Amino acid sequence: MHISEGFLSAPVLGVGIVLAAAGTSVGLKKLKEDKIPQAAILSAAFFVASLIHVPMGPSSAHLILNGSLGLMLGWVAFPAILIALLLQGVLFQFGGITTLGVNTIIMATPAVLCYYLFAGFVHKPGVLSHAACFACGFLSVFFSSLLVGTALMFTQESFLEVAWAVVIAHVPVMFIEGLVAIFCMGFLKKVQPELLPKWPAAQQQAALDNRAKMVEKQV
């Protein structure tokens, strides 16, 4: 879902740089020292997932993982995604340097949005948690594809057909990302739940559930 060099107008590139800088600034302020290793690992996972891609005109279709990344990092997704995109542009010419700001907005904004929408449900039991994780993975790609289309349309109205093609091409990816999010969050809940989002309501509910289980064992 990278937009390559040479397709976007200067105003769109400028807006992307400003918004990406603002989001990255907020993310760095929220990045605690003990969260740096987690952010680095997730940034690397994002980097690797995007290496296998299918070209789609000015963009490409591939796994993104921005929903899962945003779910665990929140605003820290901005610097994590920015670094991964920068390395992809420098090492493999995916995306580009001038489009770095726009590509960061395209992938990090849905990640943060899905964090606020679904992080509170990750610690819920059973179907509710799975539904939230699937929706997070699905919608993060959907919102990203819409942002790709928006950036292209603001550059030139003739890109409308290409924008729709990008959205349609990512429909299978949306479903795959939803399933990946379910698997990843379910696995982490079992082996390392401290990596899951620290949502206050979710933490309180998890604590109550743990106390209930302890009481049952004692009884």
Structure, explained:
With 219 residues, the protein is mainly alpha-helical. It has a single domain (10-218), classed as Arp2/3 complex 21 kDa subunit ARPC3 (Orthogonal Bundle), CATH 1.10.1760. Helices cover 72% and strands 4% of the residues. It has nine helices and two strands. It has helices at residues 10-30, 36-49, 66-73, 77-92, 100-118, 126-155, 160-169, 171-191, 200-218, and strands at residues 53-56, 59-62. It has a two-stranded antiparallel sheet. The radius of gyration is 18 Å and the shape is globular. It starts with 9 loop residues before the first helix and ends with a helix. The mean pLDDT is 80.
What key attributes describe this structure?
72% helix, ABC-type Co2+ transport system, permease component, transport, transmembrane helix, two-stranded antiparallel sheet, 219 residues, mainly alpha, globular, Arp2/3 complex 21 kDa subunit ARPC3, 9 helices
